C-alpha cells in the first residue's frame, strides 16, 4: 500500500511520523519520559536525566553514581588525543565553537573512540559463552587465543601511553563495591579480570584494562547496549573537546596545523627533478 497523500492525512497520522516515547511537547508543556520538566529541573542531576532519557526510568542512587563515575573518567585525555587535536586545529581556522566541537566528535570512530563499544560487545559475548557452560578463565583464554590468531587487539586492554591507566582502579573498585552490595551482576567484572589475566600469561609485562575496558565493565554491569557505550563515551569526551576548543579559540593563534611551523613533515618521495623538454 502506498503512503497516504499528505493532503488527506489526519493530524494523528502526521503526528505519528516522529512518534516518540522520550519527550512530550505541547504549548507550555515539556515532559521527559512522563516527568514534567519543571519538576525535573533542580531535583534530578544531569546523569540521572541521561539515564532517564536512555532507559525510560530513573536510576537508583548506586547506579547513577556508577554511570557518573564512568562519564567523569572519560572526559579528556589531553591535546595528543586526535579528537582533541582536531577540535583545537578547527578552532584556529575560524570555525564557530559548535563546528570545532563537531570536528572533534566526528573523529571518534571504530579505532579512536570505539573500543568501549567493542569491549561491551565482547563482555556480552563472553556472558553467552559462560551461560553455555564455560568458566570465566577458560572463556577468556579462548577469546585471547582467537584474537592472537587473527593478530588483533583485544578491545579495552593496554595503552599506548600509560603502563597502567590511572582511571582503571577507581572504576573497578566502584564496580566491586556494587557487586558486593548486590547492586549489579558480577559477570562483566569477572570476565574482564579473566581477560586481563589471560592477556598477561606468558608475557613479561601485564596488559591491564584501559579506560575503554574499565568503562565497558561499568556499562555492561549497568545493562547498557554496546552501541550506547560509544554514545556515552562521545557524550563524556565532548566535555573535554569543548574545553580544549574554547581554550584554543581564546589563544589568538590562527591556522595551527598538526606540526609547529618550525618543523616540516618528513618527505619520503623522489628528490627534486626536472620536468624535461617533452612536457
From TrEMBL:
SUPFAM superfamilies per the UniProt record, alphabetical: Citrate synthase
Entry protein name: citrate synthase (unknown stereospecificity)
EC number: 2.3.3.16
Protein family according to the UniProt entry: Belongs to the citrate synthase family.
InterPro entries, A to Z: Citrate_synth-like_lrg_a-sub (IPR016142), Citrate_synth-like_sm_a-sub (IPR016143), Citrate_synthase (IPR002020), Citrate_synthase_sf (IPR036969)
Pathway, per record: Carbohydrate metabolism; tricarboxylic acid cycle
Gene Ontology BP, a term: tricarboxylic acid cycle
Enzyme class, UniProt record, top EC level: transferase
Organism, as annotated: Streptomonospora nanhaiensis
One GO term describing the cellular component: cytosol
UniProt KW keywords: Acyltransferase, Transferase
GO molecular function annotation: citrate synthase activity
